[in-house]
Specification:
Layout (H helix, E strand, L loop, with lengths): L4 E6 L5 H12 L2 E4 H14 L10 H7 L5 E6 L4 E6 L2 E2 L7 H11 L2 H14 L5 E5 L2 H5 L5 E6 L2 H14 L6 H17 L12 E4 L5 H16 L2
Parallel strand pairs: 1-6, 1-7, 2-6, 7-8
Antiparallel strand pairs: 3-4, 4-5
Helix pairs in contact: 2-4, 2-5, 4-8, 7-8
The structure holds 2'-deoxycytidine-5'-monophosphate (DC).
């Protein structure tokens, strides 16, 4: 059967990764969570104290880029690949609010983007891949056969994210989560290098009032139509 590239972009907490994982499982494709890669680089910078609430020593991070090894290792039990930073499983640590607070700044650094985009293009070169992020349809795979652009209101996204974080045992306030989401939306869509925007030919999906099942079925049928064409 023909293999295609599926690029899913959109604002944070629009459920991109949930849909992408389901699609990859159903189609037996590779799933690449590019946000996890930016988060892992951010965690590295935090641990080295290259970034904190007062400072961001961009040059030091850029100098270290060739020392940062990112790999995805498939976890049979969970059914998806987890993020490893220099051989350490950081899947849980990269999802904290602290990392979320700094990640947009790190993701705005052109040298960081250049390195990660190169790795992502390598991972998806054989097709049969579902990749989610902010610049997949615009920069990483502009020729992807299926491009999606996911949106939902900031309040709906904040509620979803807030519940997720509470379930994981993080002590957060709803207002804090909403602020983080609005902040990231702003930085991600206003940065100079590869700002978040709908790619040419991308299909917009507003899931503010759409359930997971409905979204999944709609997107799967779009993918199958292209695969079977
Ligand atoms: O999808 P996420 O929330 O885990 O992504 C974390 C951050 O990384 C997000 O604020 C923007 C950035 N990002 C990016 O700039 N480009 C990508 N392809 C993926 C994520």
């Amino acid at each position: 059967m023909k293999k295609i590239t599926i690029a899913i972009d959109g604002f944070s907490s629009t459920g991109k990764s949930t849909i992408a994982k389901q699609l990859a499982r159903e189609l037996e494709y590779i799933y690449v969570d590019t946000g996890a890669m930016y988060r892992a680089v951010t965690l590295y910078a935090m641990r080295k104290n290259y970034i904190n609430t007062d400072n961001f020593f961009v040059n030091q991070l850029v100098e270290d880029l060739d020392k940062i090894e990112l790999t995805f290792v498939y976890n049979e039990k969970e059914g998806y690949a987890e993020m490893y930073l220099n051989g350490e499983n950081v899947e849980k640590e990269i999802r904290t609010m602290e990392v979320s607070d700094f990640v947009s700044k790190v993701a705005a650094v052109p040298e960081v983007r250049y390195q990660l985009v190169k790795q992502q293009q390598k991972m998806g070169k054989g097709k049969g891949v579902v990749m989610d992020g902010r610049d997949i349809g615009t920069v990483v795979f502009p020729k992807a056969e299926l491009k999606l652009f996911m949106t939902a209101s900031p309040e709906k996204r904040a509620i979803r994210r807030y519940k997720e974080l509470l379930d994981k045992g993080e002590k957060v306030k709803y207002e804090e989560v909403l602020r983080n989401i609005q902040n990231r939306d702003y930085i991600d869509s206003h940065r100079e290098d590869s700002p978040l925007k709908k790619a040419e030919g991308a299909i917009p999906i507003d899931n503010s009032d759409m359930g997971l099942k409905e979204q999944f079925e709609r997107i799967l049928s779009l993918a199958k139509r292209i695969i079977n064409a």
